[in-house]
């Protein structure tokens, strides 16, 4: 792909209408400066003195944020939040794009990440604190989600699915609705940790671990081909790039090495958003995979956050990796 073709696709993204349905989450980072820590008078522990708090959309919310950074004409976020302060913060972060349904009594899916720093440059991450609901969605909430999907489907060019949590947004009924939309001709690109094999008739985006598990084989190339019997497959394979499989054939789209410190959290979300928007903007599958890889290569260089990639950053990365 030449630079001018890359710029053409990125420009065409500005005409795309897209949506993300699924587990729209909140990421919270609490930075502690251990130089300020004191031994608690009540317990035999040193406290974590929080000096900085950062919040960003996580899960499907990170897909939305990555899409928004590429400036499509419209992005919708379809999901469920709780009636808690975390839901209010997530709604603020997604202001202007959210189509979130509030479910009383549920947690807003949130991942809290305490980070310890001190005299050196080393940052230590404590065990994550997760706020997740462990009961299925109520039928009333399912009905509202399905109605929202039906309404939005007539307004979009591509739908991304973020199916990550055991008791999350994508119930069996919601998935049936998504598969019907795909059968009716809507481009649907699905990402799921445990249920990727259920998305027949869609484009699926597993990583190599999810793909081999779904196919029941150890070799990820064989897994991609097996999964492609019922759909198109774009499988990410870490630093090696991605594989596109369809119609009994498989193509490797290589990545270029990123030097320096990296943070791979959210890289799959960046890939999914870039692939979906590029596809809707008229890119071939291989062009879309190449652009998606560039998105990930940009975001993994943003340390301590689930970052996003702008069109300008993608073009700069292309120049660094593929022209020099």
What structural class should be given to the helix and strand makeup?
alpha/beta
Uncertain regions spanning at least 5 consecutive residues: none
SSE pattern? HEEEHEHEEEEHEHEEHHEEEHHH
| Percent helix | 25-40%
Over the alpha carbons, how many angstroms does the gyration radius reach?
20 Å
Can you list the strand order of the major beta sheet? 5-4-1-9-10-11-12-13-14
Question: In angstroms, what separates the terminal alpha carbons?
Answer: 15 Å
Overall strand count? 14
Topology:
Layout lengths: L2 H10 L4 E6 L1 E10 L16 E10 H10 L4 E9 L2 H9 L4 E6 L6 E8 L5 E3 L3 E3 L7 H15 L4 E6 L8 H12 L3 E6 L10 E2 L3 H8 L4 H8 L4 E5 L5 E5 L2 E5 L13 H14 L4 H15 L11 H13 L1
Parallel strand pairs: 1-4, 1-9, 2-6, 4-5, 9-10, 10-11, 11-12
Antiparallel strand pairs: 2-3, 6-7, 6-8, 12-13, 13-14
Helix pairs in contact: 1-10, 2-8, 4-5, 6-7, 8-9, 9-10
């Amino acid at each position: 792909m030449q630079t001018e073709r890359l710029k053409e696709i990125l420009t065409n993204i500005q005409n795309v209408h897209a949506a993300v349905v699924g587990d729209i989450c909140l990421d919270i980072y609490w930075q502690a400066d251990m130089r300020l820590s004191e031994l608690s008078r009540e317990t035999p522990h040193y406290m974590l003195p929080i000096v900085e708090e950062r919040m960003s959309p996580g899960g499907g919310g990170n897909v939305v944020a990555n899409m928004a950074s590429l400036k499509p004409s419209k992005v919708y976020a379809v999901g469920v939040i709780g009636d808690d302060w975390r839901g209010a913060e997530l709604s603020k972060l997604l202001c202007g794009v959210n189509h979130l349904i509030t479910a009383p009594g549920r947690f807003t899916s949130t991942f809290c990440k305490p980070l310890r720093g001190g005299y050196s440059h080393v940052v230590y991450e404590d065990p994550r604190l997760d706020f997740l609901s462990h009961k299925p969605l109520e039928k009333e909430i399912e009905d509202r989600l399905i109605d929202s999907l039906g309404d939005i489907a007539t307004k979009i060019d591509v739908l991304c699915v973020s199916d990550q949590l055991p008791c999350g947004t994508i119930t069996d009924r919601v998935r049936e609705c998504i598969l019907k939309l795909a059968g009716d001709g809507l481009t649907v690109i699905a990402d799921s940790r445990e249920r990727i094999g259920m998305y027949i008739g869609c484009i699926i985006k597993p990583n190599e671990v999810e793909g081999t598990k779904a196919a029941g084989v150890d070799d990820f190339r064989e897994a991609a081909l097996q999964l492609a019997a019922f759909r198109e497959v774009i499988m990410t394979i870490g630093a090696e790039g991605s594989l596109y499989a369809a119609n009994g054939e498989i193509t490797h789209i290589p990545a270029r090495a990123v030097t320096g410190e990296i943070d791979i959290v959210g890289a799959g979300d960046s890939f999914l958003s870039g692939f979906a928007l590029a596809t809707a903007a008229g890119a071939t599958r291989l062009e879309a995979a190449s652009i998606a890889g560039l998105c990930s290569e940009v975001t993994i260089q943003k340390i301590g956050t689930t970052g996003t990639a702008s069109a300008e950053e993608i073009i700069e990365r292309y120049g660094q990796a593929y022209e020099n």
